[in-house]
Automatic annotation (TrEMBL):
It is found in: Cell membrane. Belongs to the EamA transporter family. Residues 8-140, 153-288 form the EamA domain. SUPFAM superfamilies: Multidrug resistance efflux transporter EmrE (SSF103481). The chain crosses the membrane at residues 36-55, 67-83, 89-111, 123-141, 147-167, 188-205, 217-238, 250-267, 273-289. The keyword Acyltransferase does not apply. This is Permease of the drug/metabolite transporter (DMT) superfamily.
Length: 306
């Protein structure tokens, strides 16, 4: 059991390590690609990769399970990324980074409401959440112009965090169906692409593939398609299956940390004292939220502690 739990934590860590570096690839692609084009191409590639990895058709045991897969695709593949990208056009990236990081809190609340008995919420979870959010604020607002309220963009980012929490709860439910993770993820991708298709016309989608003749664009879209999409959605869903929605979502706290470290390595940026303190607080919050410490009740009966 301990080995299985360790594998779940490793899967979550691998996912976050990759997702924390995707901003570089996306930034390079945004020179000639619209956000919706990047999303569509990367998830099409991810879907094809999952078909090649496991071509066997997934036959559902019950028809009503189809709705759960459809909702997961709508939330985790279509709505989350569209809301996040649109939010970035209205508000500061630092605002979005902090607001999206409340997703673990939303996940915990939704899990508590809709999956009773699944995962207990302990005081250390909330203490860890507070420490991590303080650290993320230090990282995100370091060198920025502070937190400038932008109602439309900030609300869209908040909606994206809530949508990702819904996705985490839905994938936890899907994991209970007993299907293979690759097959289940592939079905989620199918519905995500299906729901994404109508938005292509709204955002002036350009299907021109000759842009990928540029080696830089080709490498980065391959990284996003095969790594950040196909591989990471499988590892994330595996982690949710093993650890649960709440424990897995806590790893989202690490995304800003990975982003800072990657910026130092790839872009040559420096780590300021505020960023260093933010990283320390965020990691402390992660460890505190993941700890198994519980408040124990004491009984005064017979002078003994239970």
């Amino acid at each position: 059991m301990e080995r299985k739990t360790a594998a779940g934590h490793l899967a979550a860590l691998i996912t976050i390590l990759v997702w924390g570096t995707t901003f570089i690839s996306t930034k390079l692609l945004l020179v000639d690609f619209k956000p919706v084009e990047i999303l569509f191409f990367r998830f099409v590639m991810g879907y094809v990769a999952l078909i090649l990895a496991c071509p066997r058709i997934l036959r559902l045991k019950e028809r009503r399970q189809e709705l759960t897969f459809a909702l997961a695709g709508l939330c985790g593949v279509c709505m989350y990324y569209l809301l996040e990208n649109i939010a970035l056009t209205y508000t500061l990236a630092s605002n979005v980074g902090v607001i999206i990081s409340v997703a673990p809190f939303f996940t915990a609340m939704l899990t508590h409401l809709f999956m009773r008995g699944e995962e207990r919420l302990r005081p250390n979870f909330f203490a860890g959440f507070a420490a991590a959010m303080a650290g993320i604020c230090l990282i995100s607002f370091n060198g920025a112009n502070g937190f400038t309220l932008s109602p439309v963009g900030d609300l869209l980012a908040l909606a994206a965090a809530l949508i990702w929490a819904c996705y985490s709860v839905l994938t936890r439910r899907i994991s209970g169906f007993g299907y293979g993770t690759i097959q289940a993820t592939r079905r989620i991708f199918f519905y995500g692409l299906l729901f994404m298709a109508p938005t292509l016309f709204l955002f002036d989608f350009n299907p021109d593939l000759t842009r990928f003749s540029n080696p830089v664009y080709l490498f980065n879209i391959l990284f996003l398609g095969f790594g950040a999409s196909a591989l990471c959605f499988v590892t994330w869903n595996t982690a949710v299956r093993v650890l649960g929605a709440v424990k897995t979502s806590i790893y989202i706290y690490m995304v800003p940390v990975i982003t800072v470290v990657t910026s130092v390595i790839v872009l040559g940026e420096t780590v300021t004292p505020a960023s260093a303190m933010g990283i320390l607080l965020t990691l402390t919050g992660l460890l505190l939220s993941e700890s198994k410490f519980e408040w124990k009740k004491r009984s005064t009966q017979n002078g003994l502690a239970e």
